[in-house]
Give the backbone structure.
Amino acid sequence: MSAFASKSITLRLLYAFPEPLPLPRARGVQVVHAVQALAAEVGAIDFAFEPVAGNADPFAAYGLEKPANITLHPISRALPWPLHRLKARSQRCFVRRLLKTLDATHPDIVLVRHIKLACALHRARPDLPLAYEAHEVFADTTESRRPTRTAATEACAVHGAHLLLANSAATAQRLAQRYPAARPAKVLANGVRLPTSQPVKDWSRISQEIIYTGSLFGWKGVDDLVTAAAFLPGCRITIVGGSAADIEKLRQNAPAAGAELMFAGHLPHGEVQRRLAVACIAVLPNRPDPDSAFTSPLKLFEYMAAGCAVVSTDLPSIREILGDDDAAWAEPGNPTALAIAITALVQAPTRAAAMTERSFAKVQAHSWAARARRLAGLLHDACH
């Protein structure tokens, strides 16, 4: 960690995100909150992203205020005229337009989290200080028909980075194994927006206030939670997130008896936080897939900050954050074990309440502000 105080870090950062904002994925939340917090620690930020019609300010879309020292650079991935009529999107178009922004702003360092963009920038400007933030090891997780190409692109991004960041120790270790010639990765977990005080729960309703929030990808294990509902009569589980098609698939597999399942669908981030503030138990049912090995789940920090008792599958990436007594643990991929862990908390609300006191205290170190302070020091060191 850098010894520099935040007020002495006057660097100009360009953060590039070649996806539309707002984005109905956790990484959209992560990027906007991380950039906003980082603005308090550096001199200026140029924030390049693909705009969404009707949303000129990505911060406002997440209920945040844009800091004065952030300049927005909406960059389209649309094909140039007259090909724009095809409605296609191109990474190369984004890169070409981003390079023009880069030449106009003269940043001290560029920060990205996409391997294709990181590789393209390194090849176009090999002397440019570049920070690459790895949230997974794509050579391990890709489902592409060209895995060798993915690995080569990732190698380019990793080796070309002046600063290599990893969202978890597991990600850092795997990067070191696959790319031993690269710089050692600095571990920088995700963060959370902390409430002013720990939310007060009605523990008498613990069986009715069980929640999952997030996407419904297979590796997230929501299917296991739905199956576990069969063993949880008298409970009510709310599942927040997912598309209509994802939800319909879960409904078709829902047990005929057991817990009542409520599917809320995708909700604005502020509404998700409101529901978490009321919930008593929050579930993290990740399966032991490659994606889970590298996760630093935003939802875990949000569960902790919301004062929820956590039920989690027992994975190394989660154990980096929580200890034995900080969660009710279940075997990954085992719906019965998940149901047993939930039942254990439902039947012991005093234990659940004590668990939330510990996890709320622990999450204080994972605020976006704390993360930004460390990141600012690392960025400064990388370009000086």
